[in-house]
Amino acid sequence: MTPKYDTGDKHIQCGRRVDVFKFWLMWKAKGALGLQRHAEKRDDFEMVVAEPECTNVCFWYLPPSLRSCPRDEEFLTKLHRVAPKIKERMMKEGSMMITYQPLRQKPNFFRLVLQNSSLEKSDMLHIINKIAQLGEDL
């Protein structure tokens, strides 16, 4: 897979309205608690905002080198480099493609939008385990 297939930076929104409608239907069917049960807490991932206000799942991967660091400017600078490096590795490997972006003063984070209600826990574990594998040496 080459970067030419990564059209995320070329559009003002990453998902289409149709996809958001599908997600809304799934949300109505499963409810917030049903969707919450799909998530598993890990110490190597952190949500960008505690209470999400939209359908995107925004998170940081914290490589082992950053997990015990003080949350200072140096930490934020290093964290800002993590998502771009992991995405580069995803693209070279051809395994996945997940977009990232900063938000105001927050460093780059992954932004994952899923609209497929047939996804299973194993699919989600594959995604986070792959991110952890690609970033474990950072």
Automatic annotation (TrEMBL):
Q: Which Pfam families does this entry report, sorted A to Z? A: Pyridoxal_deC
Q: Which SUPFAM superfamilies match?
A: PLP-dependent transferases (SSF53383)
User: What GO biological process terms are annotated to this protein in UniProt?
Assistant: carboxylic acid metabolic process
| Cofactor needs | pyridoxal 5'-phosphate
Is Lyase there in the keyword field?
yes
Q: Which GO terms describe its cellular component?
A: cytoplasm
Keywords from the named record: Decarboxylase, Lyase, Pyridoxal phosphate
Record's keyword annotation contains Lyase = yes
Q: Which InterPro entries match?
A: PyrdxlP-dep_de-COase, PyrdxlP-dep_Trfase
Membrane-spanning regions, if any? none
User: One GO molecular function term?
Assistant: pyridoxal phosphate binding
Family (UniProt): Belongs to the group II decarboxylase family.
**Name the record gives this protein:** Glutamate decarboxylase
UniProt organism field: Lutzomyia longipalpis (Sand fly)
